[in-house]
């Protein structure tokens, strides 16, 4: 099955700086790579996703890049704000047909220091 | 829209007890899944369903049962609770496939 590794496990940045979280995956058949943000006491919330036919996708201060050859994808947050502090999870799809599901990375605790 | 509703929010069980975690969505989503979240291990898939009457096992199904009699509801049953099942459980749903999974707010379960 799919194996997703996520680094770093914790990340502290100063407000206004950029943050980068990296993930690698093992299944070359994976085509869908979402990123989730989880605030304390809440469920994960989708913040951005990318498909294998796209190399980069941006949404305001958030961007995701994908390198299918190297099997890695990254989340970039620019101009970080205290409200960006949360746990971030990457994921990759696996399986076939209607049985496709997601494998999640182990998460990154991002702390934005004021 | 209520989205994905999970009940209860907190639960303490004794070893060997059984219980059902409830999950309901009002978005007419076909796909529903149950995950458990443990420190340092991300989210691991327990069971999932691609539509009413159809369920399948995920990565960690042992000790759990599911059923999907309606589109809206996807309950997770713990048959005989064990301390290893202490975790936070999340239900998620999507309209079709994996796009835009919506997660519930979770159930924190402690088995003593």
Structure in words:
- The complex is a heterodimer of chains A (114) and B (112).
- Chain A has 114 residues and is an all-beta fold.
- Chain A has no helices and eleven strands.
- In chain A, strands 2, 4, 5, 9, 10 and 11 form a six-stranded mixed β-sheet that branches. In chain A, strands 1-3-8-7-6 form a five-stranded antiparallel β-sheet, with no helix packed on it.
- In chain A, strand 9 and strand 10 form a beta hairpin.
- Chain A is globular.
- Chain A starts with a strand and ends with a strand.
- With 112 residues, chain B is mostly beta strands.
- Helix content of chain B is 0%, strand content 50%.
- Chain B contains no helices and eleven strands.
- In chain B, strands 2, 4, 5, 6, 9, 10 and 11 form a seven-stranded mixed β-sheet that branches. Chain B has a four-stranded antiparallel β-sheet with strand order 1-3-8-7, with no helix packed on it.
- In chain B, strand 5 (43-51) and strand 6 form a beta hairpin.
- The radius of gyration of chain B is 13 Å and the shape is globular.
- The mean pLDDT of chain B is 94.
- Chains A and B meet through strand 4, strand 5 and strand 10 of A and strand 5 and strand 10 of B.
Question: Helical percent range of chain B?
Answer: under 10%
Largest inter-chain contact set: A-B, 26 and 26 residues
N- to C-terminal separation of chain B? 36 Å
> What Rg of chain B is obtained from the alpha carbons, in whole angstroms?
13 Å
- Elements of chain B, N to C (H/E): EEEEEEEEEEE
Radius of gyration of chain A in whole Å, from Cα? 14 Å
Helicity range of the residues of chain A? under 10%
Number of helices of chain A: 0
Low-confidence spans of chain A: pLDDT under 50, at least 5 residues? none
Say what oligomer this is. heterodimer
Largest sheet of chain A: 6 strands, mixed
Q: Mean pLDDT across all residues of chain A, rounded?
A: 94
Largest sheet of chain B: 7 strands, mixed
Which stretches of chain B are poorly predicted, pLDDT < 50 over at least 5 residues?
none
> What structural category arises from helix and sheet content of chain A?
mainly beta
> What is the approximate shape of chain A?
globular
- Provide the β-strand percentage band of chain B: over 45%
Task: Report, as a whole number of angstroms, the end-to-end distance of chain A.
Answer: 41 Å
Q: Name the helix and strand elements of chain A from N-terminus to C-terminus, one letter apiece.
A: EEEEEEEEEEE
């Amino acid at each position: 099955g799919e194996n997703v590794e996520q680094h770093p496990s914790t990340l502290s940045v100063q407000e206004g700086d950029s943050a980068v979280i990296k993930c690698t995956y093992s299944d070359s058949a994976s085509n869908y790579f979402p990123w989730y943000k989880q605030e304390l006491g809440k469920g994960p919330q989708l913040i951005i996703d990318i498909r294998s036919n796209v190399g980069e996708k941006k949404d305001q201060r958030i961007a995701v890049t994908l390198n299918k050859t190297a099997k890695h994808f990254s989340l970039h947050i620019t101009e970080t704000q205290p409200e960006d502090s949360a746990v971030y999870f990457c994921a990759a799809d696996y399986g076939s047909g209607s049985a496709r599901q997601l494998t999640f990375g182990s998460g990154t605790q991002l702390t934005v220091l004021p | 829209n209520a989205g994905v509703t999970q009940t209860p929010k907190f639960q303490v069980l004794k070893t060997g007890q059984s219980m059902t975690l409830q999950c309901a969505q009002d978005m007419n989503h076909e796909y529903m899944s149950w995950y458990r979240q443990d420190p340092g291990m991300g989210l691991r898939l327990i069971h999932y369903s691609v539509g009413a009457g159809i369920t399948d096992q995920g990565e960690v199904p042992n000790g759990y049962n599911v059923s999907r009699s309606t589109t809206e509801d996807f309950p997770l049953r713990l048959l005989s609770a064990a301390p290893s099942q202490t975790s936070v459980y999340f239900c998620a749903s999507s309209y079709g496939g994996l796009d835009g999974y919506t997660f519930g707010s979770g159930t924190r379960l402690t088995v003593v």
